[in-house]
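Hi everyone, sorry if this is the wrong subforum. Our group has a chain we'd like a structural model of before ordering constructs, and none of us has done structure prediction before. Sequence below.
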Amino acid sequence: MTITASDITDDPAEVRIRIDAGRTSRVLTWSFERNPPKRATNYAEVASVALLPYAQREGSELRIEGSVSSSLLANLEDYRDYWNNVAPDRFDRISIVPEVIDDNVDPVDETTAVLAISGGVHSTYALATSHRTIGDERSRSIVSAVFIRDFDIATNGATEVARCSAICEAYDTPLSVVSTNWHEEFAHHDFSLSFLAGIAATLRLFAPDAGQGIVAASTTYGSVERPSGSNPSSNAFLGDLRFPIRSAGFGIDRPTKLQAIESLPRPSEVRT
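Answer:
Right subforum, don't worry. Here is the predicted structure as tokens:
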């Protein structure tokens, strides 16, 4: 069987990608209710990232209508091989076949980034330390922090959105809120191992506005005993030279992150 992504929309606030698998057709959607991306992106690359774990689980060739960069294709092949090695009973070594391989892309400001936020300790630490005014050489100007509804929170996320709003206000960062059916339709069988693909695909919707995507690390380098969906080995494979995926916080544990959040100044406190 072949899985094909096609009929991709150009509306950055309401993204719809048709997925054909055998005789079955479904639509992968993202719907923004707050601060959508300013410009349309390469949705073929978004589909490639989002659907790779699904295609591996189905044991199906993944065909993408549209163009994909050679660096993203190479990284996705590494991501495929990593999970096929770690969990061969769940992730097959399938073929990834884009319609076109195209490395001609518009330049982007590499000092900017978009960040995934949940309102918890790890993503708050990632936002605090990634903020250019208080971070180190890995810091960027955060164009938006993105909260994903209908992802891994059982409720409608109202409490989490309010918490994220307060956090983003403290760090002078716009909050984007988006709903997607990615988890329900394409990852409910193996979400714990594939969830970062859904996050990376969502962040990639902002590729024309940001130079990279940042995800929060929920463990440390030294404590990774068994692979999880977010890990220092495979996370970076979900990006490319044009839009890399960087993990923030693998070098520090949760209690230290809590202390750091309390001690770090807010951007308004360091302005001159």
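For your construct planning: The mean pLDDT is 87. The chain has two domains: 2-101, 112-270.
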